[in-house]
Design goal:
By secondary structure, the chain is α+β, with helices and mostly antiparallel strands. It has seven helices and four strands. A four-stranded antiparallel sheet has the order 2-3-1-4, with helices on both faces. The radius of gyration is 17 Å and the shape is globular.
Length: 196
């Protein structure tokens, strides 16, 4: 799986963006929020932390705290997550009998991947990431992702903290929303460079 840059560390807090292929609204069309939450559950089961997120109709922003991955590259962990989410999204689209979108996703598979029997291109091949080392930068990213549903062309909620598929409600009220997250301030007590 191609990526723009490799993450060379085996632990730390990262702002990660995963985009649906050609910016199609696949999370929305496939009712794919549960697919993302399933990936979050898997990450948590491996000792990692979800500290902030927003699931938009066509992309996902997440603040992920990776606890030492014991030699497994973070890029690989994210790539595997994308692959499993893609399978689930395709499965949901099949259940919904959305053949038009499935046909589009099939057309977007490049020749090299088609030879490897890949049938659908669900996500853009790379993902964006930023290393989050300061509280100011973390707050900036949280503010950005939480405002996403109410900015620009989006009008997904009247108030940013009303959008259900985001950690905004938790950071605004202190009460967990649709998916429970760990407040980023709690990470100061966790050594992410060491395995769980």
């Amino acid at each position: 799986m191609s990526v723009r840059r490799a993450i060379t560390e085996y632990g730390g807090l990262y702002f990660i963006t995963i985009t649906c292929c050609r910016w199609l609204h696949l999370f929305e069309l496939a009712n794919g929020h549960s697919v993302v939450y399933k990936w979050f559950d898997h990450l948590k089961s491996k000792g990692h932390y979800i500290t902030g997120y927003v699931i938009m109709p066509n992309h996902l922003h997440v603040l992920l705290a990776f606890r030492h991955t014991q030699g497994e590259a973070i890029n690989r962990i994210v790539g595997n997550g994308k692959r499993f989410m893609a399978y689930d999204i395709v499965s949901k689209l099949k259940e919904l009998k959305n053949q038009t979108i499935l046909d589009q996703l099939s057309l977007y598979v490049n020749a090299t991947d088609r030879k490897k029997n890949k049938l659908h291109e669900v996500f853009e091949p790379s993902f964006d990431w930023k290393d989050c080392r300061t509280e100011a930068f973390i707050r900036q990213k949280l503010d950005y992702i939480h405002a996403n549903p109410c900015k620009g062309k989006w009008s997904l909620a009247n108030q940013y903290h009303d959008y259900p598929h985001s950690s905004a409600y938790y950071y605004a009220t202190g009460k967990q929303g649709e998916y429970p997250v760990l407040n980023y301030s709690m990470l100061q007590d966790i050594d992410l460079s060491k395995p769980q």
